[in-house]
Amino acid sequence: MSWNGHVVVDMDSHVYEEADQSYQGYVDPAFQEPYGRLCEAIAQQRAAGLPYSLFMSRNAILETSDEGRPLGMQDTFGLVPERRQSGAEERVPARDRVRREVNWEPRPRLEDMDRAGVDIGVIFPTHASSYCVLRDVMFESALYRAYHRFIANFCAGGGGRLRWVALPNLRDVSTAVAEVTDWAERDPNLVGIYLTPVCPNGRLLDNPDLHPLFQRAQDLDLPMLVHPGVMRSPLTPGALELDNAGFLIRSVYNPWAGQTALSALIGGGVFDLFPKLRIATMETSGGWLPFVLAQLDERYEASAHLAPNLKRLPHEIIEEGRYFHALEVSEKYVEHCVHELGEDLWIFSTDYPHTGSPWPNGVSHIIDRKALSNSTVRKILGANAMRLCSRLASWSPVAGLGSRFKSRPHRRPE
Amino acid sequence: MSYHGHLVVDMDSHVREAWEPARIYDQYIDPDHRETYERFAEAAQALRTREGDVGWDKLLWPRRARPLGVYEEFLAPRATDARAPRATHVGTTIDPAVNWDPSVRLQDMDTAGIDVAAIFSSYASGFCNLRDVAFESALHRAYSRFMSDFCSEGEGRLLWIANASMRDMPETIDQLTYWGERDRYFAGMYVPRACPDGRLLDNPDLHRLFAVSEDLDLPIWVHGDEFIPPATPPAASLSDTAFARGVLQGWGSMTAAGALIGGGVFDLFPSLRIGLFETTAGWMPWFIEQLDESYVPGSAATPNLKRRPSEILAGGQFFCGIEPGERGIANCVNELGEDIWLFETDYPHHGTEWPGSAPLVYERTDISENAKVKMFGENARRFLRQYRS
Q1: Which of A121, A88, A144, A139 has its CA nearest to residue A14?
Q2: Least Cα separation, residue B294 to chain A (angstroms)
């Protein structure tokens, strides 16, 4: 119990999964052939002296992207010199300060969590949700199954402190429902279901095709956890309209993704149709939420006919306590957020070990805020996460996994 | 001086030039473009289904609103367009003559406690969807002639903003210079939130426009609409989802502000004043923090930007309209100061609170009297050329 005897939960950490290494031994035999071709492409990329990249770069294997256009200039052909400020610790990417082994070995990861004062880390993949760009939907599902086997084994070595999030294939919802159900029944370390901010086909999260997934999540008492990814599929609004301007993309892309997701979920009546479902949004910052909720209220009053499943004002949904929102620990308006919307929806997240993570100082960014009460700090650091993810409530530092769950070894594919 | 002896300037009002477009364009269109205009007007007229119907939208930027959370509702077009054309959302009624008769408009301003109004067009930015750039420019010139005559009868209380022809910068600069040198009620150029070709407002093609505006001491007025071209985020990617697009209306202005700031426009043109209008403002404190976080001195991403974005906001060149009923006004003022906010009503559009806009600010207890005085008029005095001298 890292903060005054209270649990600290990092609701948004990651592993840097690398398809050729992380999934080795976990891919279904039936998909070894396409997997082998993917690994061969990665090998050629490495042989060419390029860093591993399936997405988010000009040299990516599966989906290229470019956010390198300088603002205010005509064509630069990439020749504008970059001069970064030296000595700014916060500008040094966490991935350069964190051991690579934390992505596949539980022990160094737990050591890092101890150093950061984090009891439990909820782990998302880094890029895997973008396998939706694959033409072969069945291979996409096979890669998600491989990821699940990999991450389940990884978390099994964490004594209950490492928890993971399942990746549903949004292009094959029935398969996704079966996969999530299977893991939920046999792995207590699974605590939620990853939801991209839009569907791979560009539809928003109000899409009724997703209702069976929401229904099963509700039945399994697992929350849906919305997480964006910058300039990788499924592309979210703004991706194609920001003219490759990295300065703007890095400023607004993820927050806009979060705003789109929340607007569609609320406007689509998801909270009304699934009255026990809990949903959270990660890595989009929190300062925009009071403003957007006011806008949603106003829009509902003016255009309720455009949200036929929504039965109440959006802010009433937030007050009900089933929506949660990850704050960035160093953002300026944490106190404003709490003042406007109360203390019961904000959750702690560090994005460890990604670039920009405050590791190992995330917790201190919260507890050093003098304007936050002890009650608020306790809720942000862990209590709200325990309400969001009911499976976290079973954890105790003495027993590791609680009595409700028995950890079992995970099968590798036959 | 309607607010305790202080000036009240409505910095975002409109004429609905599509209500009876013949009143605006018939008399003022260039002879060379009259034949095209008559075909255009006839086609738009054929698409009108009721009083006040724009027509141009169905011709140049048709759209439908999709309800969230269901597959298909098969809404009939009129079902989403059923509001009374003369009514505001607060139930008051506005005489369409305010769009062509200055005396009627001035009476409405008196009723609302407005001393001076700056007037935008309503739909003209969508002419960038015309294939004929020269005809687009001709429509903008006709509008300018009409507005110049309209405001000349406004007893000094009506100011107008010209529409930039974004695909023809030399023409736009000619018009800016022409009106800037001749018309004391001309207030500057209306620039949409992005260029019609998808480029953002950091586009160096606009630098000449900024330089001439700076020389003439005229501000740039950035305005737009999620549903009228040129498209800004999230117009393209949220397609027909009217509910979500309406909620996220700040995105276009975030894009514009981010491109202008990040593109170094305030550094390259140190006397130029730029305002954002009809965008809500509650997002601004959070957004500026995001830009500050992204700013790295000397970064290749922003080679012209020489200081933190928050310093630009404090520098007196940047202004932002604020909707009088916005919940987040106090937070905006507390976080970013009193000197950038401009009072706006959106009169006579459906969304205006007319005549109750100014009282929504009078009655606020969460901002100081000084902040109200600045918001109502003192900030506008610094923005408008008409008051600076």
Answers
A1: A121
A2: 6
**DSSP character at residue B51:** T
Shortest CA distance from A248: residue in chain B: B258
**In this complex, do B301 and A247 lie within 8 Å of one another by their Cβ atoms?**
yes
Q: Output the six-digit token pair for A115.
A: 């150093």
Query: Would the CB atoms of B301 and A263 count as touching at under 8 Å?
Result: no
- Asked whether B220 and B272 are in contact (CB, 8 A), the reply is yes
Q: Rounded CA gap, B325 and B333, in Å? A: 14
Closest approach of A265 to chain B, Cα-based (Å):
8
Q: Is the pTM of this model over 0.95?
A: no
Cα–Cα separations (whole angstroms), residue A159 to A30, A120, A188, B156 = 33, 10, 11, 76
A-facing residues of B in 111-150 (CB < 8 A) are none
Is B304 an 8 Å CB contact of chain A? Answer: yes
Kindly give the interhelix angle for B329-336 and B284-294, rounded to the nearest 10 degrees: 40
Q: Which of residues 120-149 of A touch B (CB under 8 A)?
A: none
Contact B303 A246 (CB under 8 A): no
- Give the list of residues 6+ apart from residue A81 with CB closer than 8 angstroms, or none: B300
* A288 vs B65, B264, B283: nearest CB: B283
Nearest to A247 among B80, B242, B262 (CB): B262
Chain B hits for A251, Cβ within 8 Å: 258, 287, 290-291, 293-294
Question: A404: distance to nearest CA of chain B, Å?
Answer: 36
Q: What is the pLDDT along chain A (414 residues), one digit of tens a residue?
A: 678 889 999 999 999 999 999 999 999 999 999 999 999 999 999 999 999 999 988 889 999 988 889 999 988 877 765 555 444 444 445 656 899 999 999 999 999 999 999 999 999 999 999 999 999 999 999 999 999 999 999 999 999 999 999 999 999 999 999 999 999 999 999 999 999 999 999 999 999 999 999 999 999 999 999 999 999 999 998 888 899 999 999 999 999 999 999 999 999 999 999 999 999 999 999 999 999 999 999 999 988 989 999 999 999 999 999 999 999 999 999 999 999 999 999 999 999 999 889 999 999 999 999 999 999 999 999 999 999 999 998 777 654 443 333 333 444 554
Establish whether this prediction's ipTM goes over 0.85: yes
Nearest neighbour of A241 by CB, restricted to B67, B233, B298 = B233
Q: Which long-range contacts (CB under 8 A, 24 or more apart) does A27-33 make?
A: A27/A142, A27/A143, A27/A145, A27/A146, A27/A413, A28/A142, A28/A145, A28/A146, A28/A413, A29/A413, A29/A414, A30/A142, A31/A138, A31/A139, A31/A142, A31/A143
SS3 B117: strand
